[in-house]
Amino acid sequence: MRYIPAFEAKAHFSALIDDAARGESIVVTRRGVPVAQIGPVAESQADAESAISFLLSQKIRLGIPVRKAIEAGRKR
Fold it and tell me: What is the dihedral of CA 43, 45, 50, 28, to 10 degrees?
């Protein structure tokens, strides 16, 4: 894990994103105190988000989108 000051992170943000995509974690500090972390997204989280997006885009047996069915259920 690498530590980098906030002003430097701001100046090199695109490079830090590239590093995170390669699996590196970077801790951003302000006055030497850790305040944020940039790192790769866990594959299971990305898979879960993809599955949720897919399900919400589908129409259920009622012929309406899942999102509408959820909202209708909340109104009851």
Answer: -90
Q: How many CA atoms lie within 13 A of 71 on its CB side?
A: 6
What would the two tokens of residue 45 be?
């989280």
Is residue 55 very low, low, confident or very high in pLDDT (cuts 50, 70, 90)? confident
CB 41 within 8 A of CB 17: no
Q: What angle in degrees, to the nearest 10, is found between the helix axes of 43-57 and 66-75?
A: 80
- The structural domains of the chain, ordered by start, are 2-38 (3.40.1620.10), 43-75 (no CATH)
Strand pairing report for 26-30 and 2-5: parallel
